[in-house]
Amino acid sequence: MFDKKFTYEDLAQVAFQIITHAGEAKSEAMLAIYDAKEKKFDSASKHMEKANSEINIASEQHFELIQAEAQGTQINVPLLLMHAEDQLLSTQTLLLMAEEIIDLHKKVK
Q: How many domains does the chain fold into?
């Protein structure tokens, strides 16, 4: 992905990728919840598939940074990257909650 040294621009690029894909995942999860509320479970499922695909891309970007640091790469964390990690983690939580909310809507008659 990168050489042994990460520049601010490298980290900003990764941060924007994480923010973009986490944001897409969050939007898709919310659409899934809205569809489940209307008993549109097939559509909700498709939105969750897309959400999971997007969060996987964001997670891969994040994991590459973790791997690089574990291999000795010095990473000075800019505020933008902290924001990206916050978006990633909050979206991962939302996806877990969305699955539960959809299941609850399936059980409610």
A: 1
Q: Say what percent of the chain tops pLDDT 90.
A: 82
Dihedral angle over CA of 19, 23, 24, 27, nearest 10: 180
Q: How many CA atoms are closer than 13 Å to the CA of 103, on its beta-carbon side?
A: 6
Dist CA 107 CA 53 (whole Å): 26
How many CB atoms lie under 10 A from the CB of residue 22? 29
Let me know if residue 2 belongs to a domain: no
Cβ neighbours around 20 below 10 Å, total: 16
Which domain covers residue 49, as residue numbers?
A: 8-107
Q: What confidence tens digit (pLDDT) does each residue in 81-93 have?
A: 999 999 999 999 9
Surface-to-core class of residue 15, CB atoms within 10 Å of its CB (0-12 exposed, 13-18 middle, 19+ buried): buried
Instruction: Tell me if 3 is assigned to some domain.
Output: no
Query: Which residues belong to the active site?
Result: 83
pLDDT tens, residue by residue, 33-47? 999 999 999 999 999
CATH number of the domain residue 69 falls in: 1.20.58.80
